[in-house]
Amino acid sequence: MQYRKMMTRVILAGGLGVALVFAAQAVRTPASAVALMATGSVGLHSAGALAFGPDGVLFVGDSTGGAIAAIDTDDRTPARAGSKIDVQGVDEKLAAMVGVMPSDILINDVAVNPISKNVYVSAARGRGPDAAPLVARVDASGKLTLLALDNIKHETVSLSDAPEANPAARQNPRTQTITDMAFVNGSVMVAGMSNEEWSSALRSIPYPFKTAGKGTQLQIWHASHGRYETQSPVRTFVPYSIDGKDYVLAAYTCTPLVKIPVSDLKAGAQVKGVTISDLGSGNQPLDMVPYKKDGHEFILIANSSFGVVKLHADNLGQYKPIDSPTVVDVAGAPYDKITALTNVRHLTPFDGANAVILTASGGGGFGPAVGPMSIRTIALP
Amino acid sequence: MLCLAVLLALEFTATAQSISIQLDGGIFKVVGLPAAALRAPAGGWQSVFVVYAGTGDVPPLAGSYGVENGALLFRPQYPLAAGPRYRAVFRGAAAPLEKTFDGPARNLTPSARIERVYPSASVVPSNQLRLYIYFSAPMSRGEAEQRIHLLDADGKLLRGVFLPGQELWDPNNRRLTMTFDPGRIKRDLTSNKAMGPPIAEGRRYTLVIEREWRDANGVAMVEPFRKVFRGGPAVRHAPEPKTWTITAPSGGSRDPLVVGFGRAMNYTLLQRMLTVAGPSGEVAGAIEVAREESEWRFTPRNPWSAGAHRLIIDTSLEDLAGNKIGQPFDIDVFERVTERITTATTALPFEIRSAR
Question: Domain A3-160+174-379's class?
């Protein structure tokens, strides 16, 4: 859900040479966007979806507060080659640092800083409405460090239509839960679900925020068998390149995995995705990692109840738009189940050959994860 | 440096009897230290005084240090919580001091209960899209999937009914939105074909919410909740305001304006997607939703003025099946579309007549 995705896309699009150039750019001195950030309290009400932008900037989705924060992690020291992460009991460690029982730590997302390869975790301290948002850095030694959210360089953009600092805002029961974010072509792309109306808004907010306003918004639709069209909220998505063209691979809440040309993502548009896979009922993809291995392209997908699958993605270009009732959209992309990976709650790219997973000891679907939880790098299968 | 350490150690030894660790107002204190020991050591205060809130190989509690009134203080970054035991360790004396404290006591008296569930009717469409559960107190996140169940007429637990995913709470954790699996509702999707809709027409169901669901303080609810309902026909067509009935009150009165929809609508959206405009602009007043969400009543704050009025309708208003004004939940593109509404709002005019 992050800059990780952009990194992956670059690797896929241009190969290793491009990736190296990209990495070199990534460690340049902080851009003016970071330099101009004010230091102070971020004012987060919650810390949910994470995505990395340029220069170690971490985007944090605040569903409760209806905002996106861009935080300067000041974490721009390149990782040593071959670095790995393996932290057992990360929930227990985090709980001990903030003084609660491990069951009162809800980990919401995991992202890897593409420069330092440090892992960032967003979480809540507590389960009630007053739960404190947490963002912690996990380094290669396994050390956890809490980001000082009350005194850190940052800027924020409100997603709410309500006036800021409205004392009645807490009484407004309407919220937009941010289900995923990614930094794509200079903008933060945000998918979300409303707790009231059935909407499918995908928002694109140019970064830096100060000059951007609230960005543009479009509707995502899904068609089945070319006959029924539905507004379909996006659960998770990842930028991806197919035959040199930029796409967003998105998983709808109604299960199918679809591709959407980035060129279609225009303000006010109603965009239909083209189904490339449907992993079955009662399941939702949680995270996706595209990668290339042995000359072939794959997408590793962690699911709510279907385990981890490896989708063979060499021929995604063959799936044509559904523009005729005669076209059947039943999925065709083959996949393998990766049975060695169980209880994976979060999956995110680490480098071209490895990913980072957060695993629970038990608990299924989206239900409460049973700790202890661990974070570790795995070789992409 | 070594000499200083020896001196400090000797001094601590001499006074070790009087050094103690205390917890005062959420702040851990080491009291009774000699003056020489109140200067931060080279390794920082964390090298001599740490508090642990967990067992095993865990980092110390996050917080900050200070010296006040002859005592070394540790202020936790977050308030102490019920549950963990806090173990404070001071290693600056000849013999390490250690003391364990409990966090604040938890009120274990249950108080939370389910106040209401929408839709309120005992018959809901087989393509019902969402449930809204209202609690009397803030609740804990992360338990919905474990605590909410749907049983069939034989009491058998039905699986795969609700959309797995983020729990959609209001900011106060008092209203939870549950979504029936849209993959089963939307016609012709794999889930719909394999499993059918979550609710079948003519069948009886029981929504069960377990008492063990914890409120925001970690305490179970007062009682469980059960709601029996039956599946009705699917609703596939968009609500049509032209078919709604408007009963206009008389001018000068504060009688309610009554709007009948002819079908049940989404309760939460009825709170904000209908407004009334009069000759002088938007009319302020109170909303009441009645007759199992098929009726909307609006009582003005001030008496009605005679003249032309309009009911302003946000076209995102939905019925129980997620059909919006002018836009069904799943649009059948084979069907001939006679009218497509693309504006954000539409309006129904009505007249407030002067009382005779």
Answer: mainly beta
